[in-house]
Amino acid sequence: MNTVKQVWVWAEHYRGSVNPAVLGLLGKARELAHEIDGGSVGVVLAGADSKNITDELFNYGADFIYLADDTSVNLSDTESCARLVAELARQYQPEIVLWGATGPGKEIAARTAVRLNTGLTAHCIALDIVEIDGRKQLAASVSGWGGSAVIRITCPKQRPQMVTVKAGIFTSVRPEKRTGKIIHVKITQEPARLETIEVIEATASAGSLEQAEVVVAAGWGMNSLGGIAQAEELANLLGGSVGGTRPAVDAGWISHDRMIGQSGISVAPRLLITLGVSGAAQFASTVTGAKFILAIDKNPDAPIFEMADLGIAGDLQEILPRLITKIRAVKGKSWTDISKE
Question: What whole-number distance in Å separates Cα of residue 118 and Cα of residue 138?
């Protein structure tokens, strides 16, 4: 058994690019490792092209990389990936394993939990170390009961403690030039029960919401303006990206991959502007990482104003055109400078 407790991150990647969720998780993994008596951060990395991203993972916080640089490892084969993580977990006994709440990540995590007979908490919005009965435990917070409550879940008996987290919940730390240890591992070959027939790449929407410094979120209140054209104009002026709530998706204004909320994505921009967003808990729990929130809504009692740094209660038909005009007049300044005028 390892004397130094380890916090692991599953490193999902595609065509030489690390999934943004992984970089955020590495920063959180370092925090958790420090709180469990100075533990270390390990990364499980698999795939034929994985050796090309080891330096990046070290720079973002990894101490160890368990590398299965094997052409036989197919990252779309979630069963073989789960088998790899489970075998390594039995050997090295990590305390905690973190996964990005992506399609493959959620499936691999679930399969791994079954193999290890341990718990898995999904779609976490916060992770903390707490002491229960004299033992340090991972407390994973999730939104429950339709988003009206936050529930803290622990896994007191089984190890490892495992969670999935959406991109945007934790922001990545500033990378530093670091080195670490690479441990080469091999995956046990078993007859495959899954077969990849075809991989179809979805067309990426312009501007990544998870990485954007400015996000404009459109809600049903934009209906009075006939859609989100002015929200897009505002985002373009500020060099940001547009997302929205479920009503905006249902109205056909934005694609589902740009929906902000419990069943969508989480964001943590420097500036979040909400337009006609009521601020229900399903939305609020996924924007807690925003550094500054400007909220505009005609309902002065809307929940969004409780979390906003600056709120404007009024009609979007009057306020939004004025805001756009003002920003055009000071274009070239940062949003911080604009907010002071």
Answer: 13
DSSP 62: -
Q: Which domain holds residue 71?
A: 6-184
Cα(259)–Cα(143) distance, integer angstroms: 17
Please provide the distance, in angstroms rounded to a whole number, between the alpha carbons at the two ends of the chain. 60
Helices 229-238/316-329 angle, 10° precision = 30
Kindly state the DSSP code that residue 9 receives in the 8-state scheme. E
* Nearest alpha-carbon partner for 27 in 331, 217, 289: 289
Final residue in a domain of this structure, among 137, 162, 184: 184
DSSP for residue 222: G
Reduced to 3 states, what is the DSSP secondary structure of residue 217?
strand
Per-residue pLDDT of the chain (341 residues; tens, 9 = 90+): 456 689 999 988 877 788 878 888 998 999 998 888 878 999 998 877 777 788 899 998 899 999 887 666 667 778 888 989 999 999 999 999 999 888 888 999 999 999 999 999 988 888 998 888 888 888 888 876 555 567 888 888 889 999 998 777 787 778 888 888 998 887 777 777 777 777 776 655 555 777 788 999 998 888 888 888 889 899 888 888 899 888 888 888 988 888 888 777 888 888 999 998 988 877 887 787 788 999 999 999 888 998 899 999 988 888 998 888 888 887 655 555 555 55
Same domain as 142, residue 39: yes
Q: Decide: pTM greater than 0.85.
A: no
Q: Any idea what the CATH number is for the domain that residue 266 is in?
A: 3.40.50.1220
